[in-house]
């Protein structure tokens, strides 16, 4: 158990709250685990279909010799930099499986979209719900039910949470996640942000902006800022679902192939002990460990949605109060852009996930008595992989921070509290990422300017209508209204206004992505405006106070007047009535069924 009182208390609260649903989940897991192995429990025609495409030697191995069979679920495509490196992985895994006396098959692929491509476009309205599509695609892939273990190949924003939710439906299978790593460093994130702000002011043109963007995003691998994609990898390490230290090894690095092979060995139990089923690994302690790691590194706000859904898939119920309580107790150990100037490659060079996990364990802030996919438990994740001349893997102690401007020990953190905060008041419940916001902007009080879309706000900025202290309210952006897109395009203009000395904040029922930056943004407001939430009552000129110190978000008008106000209706033709093109029609059922952001925006409960 964790020795820290808050971590222990929150974990016990989650355990008690989840007792019935977790027990039901484990009972289902056990009933599936007691069955015969895949090839033995199916009829002969089923088996023949399942293995018809296999080489003859593999057919003999899996059918007659009853060898284990790994199901590979992959997010590979060659359009997106984070997923392109996965092309070679199935061949490596199959080869390693044969060396271990087993077999492997690509069970199926899942879609992988990039929010960087779809930011500010109609396609962004599919983004959040793509997580649940990925979960369903994972379930379809594994539903062939001929697998003894599974490997999940994926990295980015919705892909990892979707793969996790899908894999947990088959919680009796040992399952290991296999990443591809970040691209090497290009134009720095801070330099890129500066050019974006210049473009927002019309100081540079499209040519200069495009040159900067392509210098930043330049090669295979994930983006190098600490957004949702890279936060995913930190959380998977903290949950013990990777081969230790795999997260931030670049594509093409000499160790990358051997780490992928080690994933196959691990899931087969060839790394020293049987790999436990994922439904047992992902319990309330593992979920809390992930939450703590997120807070300690100033990670993505998106995970206050995604990890709620992941937990629910394992029968565990968490909420934003749990995040808030942990954030008050967990120190901030990392400064990685947008929570600092370093990118994830510098984070890795300074000590990376291994350093963070060791510091948290030693401070009693993470549970050490947890299952992981490796025999050495979570302590294995405090070590870093190395290779000898033949690239045979070994792991070494991470040692002290090699850059204390990026990583600091728990005894001397950047901040005594975590990077995320819960806000509540008469504008509902929302969250803010405070780790990247300057302290003198943690409290903003100013008149509201209400917008129905991010396009409206951008137009007002270009027209010079926001040159003042202002709280920009962008509503009708929740899961039921339009799929809860990220509003990251708003960061540059709001940063420009803040840079001119204005007190500026954003309040929205939409998302601001893992790249939430230096402008205070109260996001994920629940209940959303389309569900009758309080943002629907706000009018232009209403004084709003966002106080990230006290944890409050309020409109400062008479309580009786506020309660008497009728909520505005979503403008005709906006979102729901206008969701045509780009496949949005196909997601109408998702919008109708989506739970609130605090409930994970799940569409399957």
Strand ordering within the main sheet: 7-8-12-11-10-9-13-14
How many structural domains?
2
Strand coverage percent: 5-15%
Largest sheet, described in full?
8 strands, mixed
N-end to C-end Cα span = 31 Å
Helix fraction bin: 25-40%
Textual characterization of the structure:
The chain has about 600 residues and is of the alpha/beta class. The chain folds into 2 domains: about 5-35 and about 70-185 and about 220-395, no CATH class; about 420-600, 3-Layer(bba) Sandwich (Glucose Oxidase, domain 1), CATH 3.50.30. Helices cover about 35% and strands about 15% of the residues. It has 24 helices and 14 strands. It has helices at about 5-15, 20-35, 40, 45-50, 55-65, 90-100, 115-120, 125-140, 160-170, 190-200, 205-215, 230-240, 255-265, 280, 285-295, 305-315, 320-325, 345-350, 350-360, 455-460, 480, 490-500, 560-565, 590-595, and strands spanning about 70-75, 105-110, 150-155, 175-180, 385, 395, 420-425, 430-435, 445-450, 470-475, 505-510, 520-525, 545, 550-555. The strands form 3 sheets. Strands 7-8-12-11-10-9-13-14 form an 8-stranded mixed beta sheet. A 4-stranded parallel beta sheet has the order 2-1-3-4, with helices on both faces. β9 (about 445-450), α20 (about 455-460) and β10 (about 470-475) form a beta-alpha-beta unit. The protein is globular, with a radius of gyration of 24 Å.
């Amino acid at each position: 158990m964790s020795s820290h009182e808050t971590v222990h208390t929150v974990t016990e609260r989650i355990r008690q709250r989840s007792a019935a649903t977790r027990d039901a989940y484990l009972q289902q897991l056990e009933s599936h685990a007691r069955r015969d192995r895949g090839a033995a429990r199916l009829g002969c025609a089923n088996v023949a279909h399942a293995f018809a495409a296999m080489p003859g030697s593999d057919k003999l191995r899996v059918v007659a010799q009853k060898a284990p069979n790994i199901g590979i679920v992959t997010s590979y495509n060659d359009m997106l930099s984070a997923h392109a490196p996965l092309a070679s992985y199935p061949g490596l895994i199959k080869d390693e499986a044969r060396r271990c006396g087993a077999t492997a098959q690509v069970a199926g692929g899942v879609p992988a979209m990039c929010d960087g491509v779809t930011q500010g476009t109609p396609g962004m309205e599919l983004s959040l719900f793509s997580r649940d599509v990925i979960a369903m695609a994972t379930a379809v892939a594994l539903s062939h039910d001929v697998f003894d273990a599974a490997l999940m190949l994926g990295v980015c924003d919705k892909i990892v949470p979707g793969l996790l939710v899908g894999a947990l439906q088959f919680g009796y299978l040992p399952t290991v996640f296999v990443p591809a790593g970040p691209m090497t460093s290009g134009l720095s994130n801070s330099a890129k942000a500066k050019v974006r702000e210049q473009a927002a002011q019309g100081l540079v043109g499209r040519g200069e902006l495009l040159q900067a963007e392509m210098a930043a995003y330049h090669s295979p691998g994930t983006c190098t800022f600490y957004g949702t994609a890279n936060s995913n990898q930190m959380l998977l390490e903290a949950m013990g679902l990777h081969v230790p230290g795999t997260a931030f090894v670049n594509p093409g690095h000499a160790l990358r192939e051997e780490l992928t092979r080690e994933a196959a060995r691990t899931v087969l139990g060839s790394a020293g002990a049987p790999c436990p089923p994922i439904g047992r690994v992902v319990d309330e302690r593992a979920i809390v460990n992930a939450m703590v790691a997120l807070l300690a590194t100033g990670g993505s706000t998106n995970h206050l949605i995604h990890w709620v859904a992941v937990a629910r898939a394992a029968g565990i119920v968490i909420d934003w109060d749990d995040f808030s309580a942990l954030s008050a107790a967990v120190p901030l150990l990392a400064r990685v852009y947008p929570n600092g100037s370093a990118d994830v490659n510098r984070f890795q060079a300074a000590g990376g996930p291994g350093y963070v996990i060791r510091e948290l364990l030693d401070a009693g802030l993470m549970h050490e008595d947890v299952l992981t996919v490796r025999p050495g438990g979570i302590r294995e994740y405090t070590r870093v992989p190395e290779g000898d001349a033949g690239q045979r893997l070994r792991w070494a102690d991470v040692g002290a921070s090699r850059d204390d401007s990026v990583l600091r020990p728990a005894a001397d953190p950047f901040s005594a509290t975590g990077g995320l905060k819960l806000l509540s008041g008469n504008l509902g419940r929302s969250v803010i990422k405070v780790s990247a916001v300057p302290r003198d902007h943690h409290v903003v009080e100013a008149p509201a300017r209400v917008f129905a879309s991010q396009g409206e706000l951008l137009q007002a900025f270009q027209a010079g209508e926001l040159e003042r202290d202002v709280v920009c309210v962008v509503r009708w952006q929740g899961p039921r209204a339009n799929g809860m897109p990220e509003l990251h395009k708003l960061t540059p203009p709001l940063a420009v206004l803040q840079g001119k000395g204005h007190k500026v904040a954003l309040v929205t029922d939409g998302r601001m992505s893992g790249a939430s930056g230096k402008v205070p943004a109260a996001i994920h407001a629940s209940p959303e405006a389309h569900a009758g939430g309080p943002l629907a009552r706000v009018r232009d000129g209403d004084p709003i106070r966002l106080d990230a110190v006290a944890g409050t978000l309020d409109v400062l008008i008479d309580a009786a007047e506020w309660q008497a106000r009728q909520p505005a209706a979503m403008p005709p033709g906006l979102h729901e009535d206008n969701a045509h093109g780009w496949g949005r029609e196909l997601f109408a059922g998702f919008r109708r069924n989506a739970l609130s952001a605090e409930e994970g925006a799940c569409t399957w409960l």
